């Protein structure tokens, strides 16, 4: 943090850093999920995207397929979303630490 700023300014700076980190995590996870998504026609892979929402005190990032029907049973056999997040948890933590530590 920069010296000589108010608590509110510091809070705003930290919030912006977290928002940036979550957006970066979303794009990285989207790319990783697409690599392991089962492909038949390619529609599922093309539909995968990410979105980050700033809800004030909460920042949420989602990665998934939107606007396409997908058989739940296939996801049980090839859990491409959950397994990708699980296998990238340390990378996610590292990215957040990296962004938060940069001034």
UniProtKB/TrEMBL annotation:
Protein name per UniProt: HK97 gp10 family phage protein
Organism for this UniProt entry: Tissierella pigra
Lineage of source species: Bacteria, Bacillati, Bacillota, Tissierellia, Tissierellales
Pfam families in UniProt: HK97-gp10_like
Family matches, as InterPro entries: HK97-gp10_tail
């Amino acid at each position: 943090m920069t010296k000589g700023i108010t608590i509110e300014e510091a809070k705003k700076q930290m919030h912006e850093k977290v928002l940036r980190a979550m957006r970066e995590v979303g794009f990285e996870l989207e790319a990783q999920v697409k690599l392991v998504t089962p492909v038949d026609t390619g529609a599922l892979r093309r539909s995968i995207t990410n979105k980050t929402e700033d809800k004030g005190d909460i920042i949420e990032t989602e990665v998934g397929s939107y606007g396409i029907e997908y058989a739940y049973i296939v996801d049980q056999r090839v859990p491409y979303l959950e397994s990708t997040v699980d296998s990238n948890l340390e990378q996610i933590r590292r990215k957040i630490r990296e962004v938060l530590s940069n001034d």
